[in-house]
Write a structure and sequence with these properties.
Length: about 120
């Protein structure tokens, strides 16, 4: 038997989106078989591995509730990009603390000659 764990045929047992357990062979697009329980799928995969030299089984681990919640949280944070990014320490933006003195817009405007001063009531 070959000592390299990456050589040979890999038979995978994993749960699909329809809650069925599928037995897959790497390189083959369609599942070899589908079962209602993990135990039946592992038994089937074990039979295949026993009959093929250098074959091995990879069984997908069922995610815990905590892993599911963390994955969902990661997805939410990813979808909220860029608002989820931390504020940069040096953003390259300079803040102006005191506004510079500016010319009165009434006399600096391009149509300043047309501006009529407001009449004051006496």
């Amino acid at each position: 038997m070959n000592s390299d764990p990456t050589s040979g045929i890999l038979i995978q047992v994993r749960q699909n989106h329809a809650a069925q357990w599928e037995v897959n062979q790497t390189g083959v697009q369609t599942p070899l078989a589908s079962f209602e329980t993990k135990e039946l799928a592992v038994e089937y995969a074990t039979g295949i591995v026993d009959s093929i030299p250098d074959a091995r089984i990879e069984i997908a681990v069922e995610p815990s509730q905590q892993q599911i919640e963390e994955t969902l949280l990661d997805d939410v944070l990813e979808m909220s990009f860029p608002s989820s990014d931390p504020i940069s320490v040096n953003s390259g933006i300079s803040r102006i603390e005191v506004a510079p003195e500016m010319v009165d817009a009434g006399i600096d405007h391009q149509n300043s000659q047309r501006i009529v001063p407001a009449k004051t009531e006496e």
